[in-house]
Amino acid sequence: DFGDSAHQGRSGSMSVSNGTNDRAVWCGGSITGGHSAGSQREFMDYVTVSSASNASDFGDMIDERGSGASFSNGVHDRGILYAGYEGFTYNTPFERIEYITISTPSNGTAFGNANMVDYSASPNGIAAVSGCSNDTNDRGIKMGGNEPVSGKIDTIDYLNIVSLGDSQSFGTITTATGSGMCCVSDGTGERGLGAG
Predict the structure, then answer these.
(1) Which of 105, 140, 195, 196 has the greatest number of C-beta atoms within 10 Å?
(2) How many angstroms separate the CA atoms of 60 and 58, rounded?
(3) pTM tops 0.85, yes or no
(4) CB 133 within 8 A of CB 72
């Protein structure tokens, strides 16, 4: 047993770490285990990974949401929280991207918006997305997801973790997914994998 969360249990949380700097933060998520109206939360908790203990309050995200992508640039200390389901209506995807400085407890800060060009003519959000990064090389990518007009999507988008702004088109995955695939990378080795 490592310890307990600082807030009530949540599913669909987004999580980031600053690698060997030893901090992990998990953010948002649903207190009911689904995407029902009012179930998403804005809480962020953190722990020191090498020390078993209860989590501490980190701050709040700008919005109540969960089931978004998350990634970081490792020891460069920036965590990205990408889109997700927002908290006030049922099953509504959201387009906001925000960031935190992982070593400094604080509230989330606006970064930009998810790339909407590939999804529909109107500005709709995306959720059930997955992401990874090339660590200290500062690029994050998002794979797949669900969009309310297009449904399951096959797009890959990217952003520069150190530069505020919207994500941009990168390419496509083999098969569209709307349930949140697993996305991992080998860090500065520059290979990312998506499965699910």
Answers:
(1) 140
(2) 7
(3) yes
(4) yes
Number of Cβ within a 10 Å radius of residue 173: 16
CB 17 within 8 A of CB 24: yes
Name the DSSP class of 42.
E
User: pLDDT digit string (tens) for 79-118?
Assistant: 999 988 876 554 567 789 999 999 999 999 999 999 876 5
Q: Give residue-wise pLDDT tens across range 115-166.
A: 876 555 445 677 888 999 999 999 999 998 887 777 788 889 999 999 999 9
Pairing assessment for the beta strands 130-133 and 139-143 based on DSSP bridges: antiparallel
- CA 38/CA 159 separation, integer angstroms: 30
Instruction: For CA atoms 10, 13, 19, 21, give the dihedral sign.
Output: negative
**What is the amino acid identity at position 52?**
A
Query: In which residue are the tokens 């994500």 written?
Result: 167
* Spatial contact of 185 and 135, defined as CB atoms under 8 Å apart: yes
Distance of CA 36 to the CA centre of its chain: 19
- Chain position carrying tokens 């939360």: 41
Looking at this protein, which amino acid is placed at residue 195?
Answer: A
Most distant CA pair in the chain, distance? 48
Tokens, residue 91? 């099953």
Amino acid occupying residue 72:
S
Structure token pair of residue 69: 């992508």
CA distances from 38 to 121, 125, 155 (A): 28, 17, 29
